[in-house]
Amino acid sequence: MKFDSKIIPYAGWEMFLMRAFFGLAVWMGSPVFLPYTSQPHPNGLAHFIDFTALASPEFFGPLRALLLIAIVFYVIRVWTLPALTVMFGMVVAAGSLENSQGAINHTFQCYGLVILGQWLVSAWSTAKGSAARVFDPIDSLSLQRLGIHAAKVALVASYVTSAITKLIESEGGWIFRTVNLAPQIVKSNANSYVNALVEPGWLAGAAPEFIVHNPVISSILISGGLFLELFAFLALLGRWQAAIYGILLISMHEMIAHVMNLHFPTFQNLCLIFLVNIPFLVCLTIRGALRLRPRAA
Amino acid sequence: MLGWIPFREVILSVAVLLLIGENFPFSNFPMYSSLEDESFYFVVTNSKDEILPYATVFRFRASFASKSYKTEYKKLVKSGVPKEEASRRSAAKILDYMVARAEPSMKPRILKGGLKFTEVRTTVKNGELIETRTTFAEVPPR
């Protein structure tokens, strides 16, 4: 077997469910109201475009309705290119405005990137396609598989980038600085506490103390997360590799959530949808159970 | 031509993300990348030194306060403002912004005795965690 990424021959129903869950995640994650009437620290396209009109409910309401329509078309894979264009436009507009307030939030970039990956596949197919492709609004199975592959590439690339940034910013010394994660854990838990005055769990206090008093063991444990991110591209080797890697990444996020009170639900959603692919695992389990069932004499 | 390179689409995507950096929806995802030996957060306290919760009182998030402070501070220092003055001015701006956003029904009560905006800095020193507190901005009693 070649050591390379593989476009998995997913069944149509699997891809339909993946798109449905992703569409639902985008819809549930998109803001209902944006309170920002200025862009004091422009980020991304906000350098060139004023997105503050989104703060007006009269303007934002119809746009959200348009997003819903686009998601439905995306899920049923009809006129995917315009549907993905609307979805991408909405996520970028809302995200750029939110991130132009002086505090960069890393929640919705991954949704934007996953949409962009699929949009590129769709645009490429339309650009190279014949006139028939333009008038045939329904994506073929192979094109859908390519779209799902692009979504997975965008997701794993985000993890690999995060790991490489850690190595660049720390000049290769990230593993040797893990003791400094202790004050960061104190900060993230304190931030959660002062938000609503809810006491964090016992790990919030125990983890920083453990790290500063056991720097070597902590370094080994924490470095596991760095390597998991760095080699996230291995999830593209096949179905099982994707499922196993997805479970490992979700476990890493859960661990971070318990220790640091930092939650990454968007990343976890994407891992669950595109890597773990629960419907496939359920189907496999049912098939296995049926095969094992004793036959009637 | 490049068919022999494994995972080339991932390599290309990572290169794009690193090159474009922090421009939505692109990002180099720099969370906890530099791992400095200290961290800080802000608390807002009333005249009785009680901590006021960001979410319910100011309709804001504590992490946003620290990030906004950092952005404003860097901007001021870059424009030539001395560091101490930049700290005070950045903190005052964020506190003013939060007070403006505060829950209207709570505003008179929280402003009555005045507010303090205090930085809590945690540092690792000789295998111990050291905490220091500095009040950077205040709202006088009204």
Layout of SSEs?
The complex is a heterodimer of chains A (297) and B (142).
Chain A: H1 12-29, H2 57-75, H3 80-98, H4 109-128, H5 131-135, H6 141-169, H7 181-196, H8 202-213, H9 215-230, H10 239-260, H11 265-276, H12 278-292
Helix pairs in contact in A: 1-2, 1-11, 2-3, 3-4, 4-6, 6-9, 6-11, 7-8, 8-9, 10-11
Chain B: H1 8-20, E1 38-45, H2 54-58, H3 62-78, H4 83-101, H5 107-112, E2 115-125, E3 128-139
Antiparallel strand pairs in B: 1-2, 2-3
Overview of the structural elements:
- The complex is a heterodimer of chains A (297) and B (142).
- Chain A is mainly α.
- Chain A has a domain at 12-169.
- Chain A contains twelve helices and no strands.
- The mean pLDDT of chain A is 93.
- With 142 residues, chain B is α+β, with helices and mostly antiparallel strands.
- In chain B, 42% of the residues lie in helices and 22% in strands.
- Chain B has helices at 8-20, 54-58, 62-78, 83-101, 107-112, and strands spanning 38-45, 115-125, 128-139.
- The mean pLDDT of chain B is 93.
